[in-house]
Amino acid sequence: MADEGISGITTRLADRPQGRRLFDMLREGDTLIVRWIDRLGRDYGDVCDTIRKFMEKGVIVRSVINGLTFDGATTDPMQRAVRDALIAFMAATAQAQAEATKEAQRAGIAHAKGRADAYRGRKPSYTRAQLDAVVAMLDQGESVSAIAQVTSLSRQTIYRIKDDRAEAEAALARWAA
């Protein structure tokens, strides 16, 4: 799915714009192929609910990595129980992976903050002189396009400086050392 600017960890698939689009597009008899079941949600409840909603619509869900197929066509209670257990297991695995990833990220950030050579963020694409010129021209009411032409900076860089001057200053300071 396209980048939506929304976190898949905090927003249910059905509540995301591309997720709603997927639900609207799929019809009875369609097959949804996903690389891994965790693409359908990041927590246990979301993955289970999503697969069940698709099965209720008559959509078959297949995962490429492990070759599992989930559909709502089976009437045999034992096969349904096995299918539901597999869904629950895959959903639990997806949530465990998401939790492990978040924990590793938190540990990495904490480790980096404790080091003298900690990550300084993205290197500024502007110099002190360019920053000063941008700030002065913004204060004079110049347009972003005009400032970009004069300073040879991209319009996006000008917008970043305009939106957060303090961070622009801080980035230069971090990289000055």
Task: Briefly characterize the structure.
With 177 residues, the chain is mainly alpha-helical. Helices cover 57% and strands 6% of the residues.
How many helices? The count is 7
> What fraction of the residues are assigned to beta strands by DSSP?
5-15%
How many domains in all?
Answer: 2
Helix-strand pattern:
HEHEEHHHHH
CATH domain fold name of the largest domain? Rossmann fold
For the largest sheet, list the strands in their spatial order: 1-2-3
Tell me the name of the CATH class of the largest domain: Alpha Beta
Q: What is the level-2 CATH architecture name of the largest domain? A: 3-Layer(aba) Sandwich
CATH homologous superfamily annotation of the largest domain: Resolvase, N-terminal catalytic domain
What structural class do the secondary elements suggest? mainly alpha
- Round the mean pLDDT to the nearest integer and report it: 85
Principal-axis shape equals: elongated
Query: How many DSSP E strands?
Result: 3
Radius of gyration: 24 Å
Summarize the biggest pleated sheet.
3 strands, mixed
Distance between the termini: 41 Å
Low-confidence stretches: none
> How much helicity do the residues have?
55-70%
